[in-house]
Here is the input.
Amino acid sequence: MKSRIWVMLLAIATFGACAAPTPEQQILDDVAAALGGREALEAAQSLSIEGEGVMRNLGQDMTPDATSQTFTISDYTRSIDLTTGRMRVEQTRTPTFNYFRGPDPLKQVFGIDGTVAYNVAPDGSATRTPNAAATARRAEYYHHPLTLLHAALKPGATVANARTTDGESLVDITTEDGVTLTLAMDADTKLPSHITSMLNHTNLRDVAQRTSFTDYEDVNGLMLPTGMTVSTDDYQILDFSVTAQSLGADVGDLAAPDAASAAAPITGPPPANVTAEEVTDGVWLLAGESHHSVLVEFSDYMMLIEAPNEARTLAVIEKARELVPDKPLTHLVSTHHHFDHSGGVRAAISEGLTVVTHAANAAFYEDLAERSSTIVQDALARNPKALTLETVDDEKSYEDETMRVDIYHIADNPHADTLLMAYLPRQRLLVQADAFSPGRDYQPFATKLLENIEQRNLSVDRILAVHGGVVSYDDLVSAVRAMAN
Here is the structure.
């Protein structure tokens, strides 16, 4: 009897030891083996990557869907310490298009150390980035086969939701520090084809950030990709080629600079500073920061021009209602689609404003209004409202007995195809953004603004710039002459 029991126990133990791995574990085992084996992955301590690439000017191109404006990425080095989970990136970014700061290359240094993300300015000073940026950068750390598999094989990681999509095997990995990513395995090679994570984007809200991998090579016994493409939802933002990479090299101390690590965490944007200056009867400049707005009063309603970001837009709307409490704020004129000028559109929708924009923005703004915002709820997610949209092709007028505003397209401007300007003929006042920014030495877009004013025979005395405040028309003429010389 006893021998029979021992036989049964032995059979159970043997069956347990030989039980087939779960689908999740099988995918992880297959990927680990294809990359070079679990032992080699767990033993890796550092990774250094050099390369070059092309970065798209996401959210700042000529139209929402355009891909013509790019930056060349050179002198790129990514240093990763796998034992501490730290990463530091150095690169030079050079615009290939007419840019505000001119064609000069810009040296960029940034990194992540635990929950501290930081940027290092050209003068060497370091600043801590907001927590939201740190979350995105921590996910970016894992957007590489080595860093993700190294983390996935640790006891504290979890693997779940094995599935097949478009012929590829997918599995969700949650790392010890709580980052969840989806790993896709190529059906033939068993190598990672892409890594995806869901992030909160300030403008686009919930987005799928994906890094795709191609052209693997053997680096000291591990297979590592030499081609990487990064996309945000359907927008490709980076095409990168590795020129050199090494394992186990001395990457130095990648700890965050003291100034960044000692700084208090930044949990959200600072309170918006909104000042109000009455430029003329019924027109206020709502300034206080880099991106201004303009309030225009009609006989029975108000119009707001420009909504740069959510916090500022909500504060500007509050200020507008304080200035003219007996009239509803009904319209927002969004001068163009660029992210730093349209970031408050969803907030304006949540407050019931009709959005006025160029016709080329219609599909983008409609999509913007419908996007999910579950990772971080914004104003529109908290107070859902349908978008009411009015578009401008070449010109559109709003007029009653007390006020007239003519909205014109700034044609052929190299900054954006969707640029609008607002002209108040009775006040001989022009409101515009980015085409002319007083105070800057470099004014690459001012010439086309002046041409548009002249071609439309507008009588302008003053220009109210979203960047820079109120200046005279002669200031624009002088800036154009200076650029010509």
Remarks:
- The first strand starts at residue 46 and ends at 56.
- The domain at 20-261 is CATH 2.50.20.10 (outer membrane lipoprotein receptor (LolB), chain A).
- The CA atoms of residues 165 and 184 lie 9 Å apart.
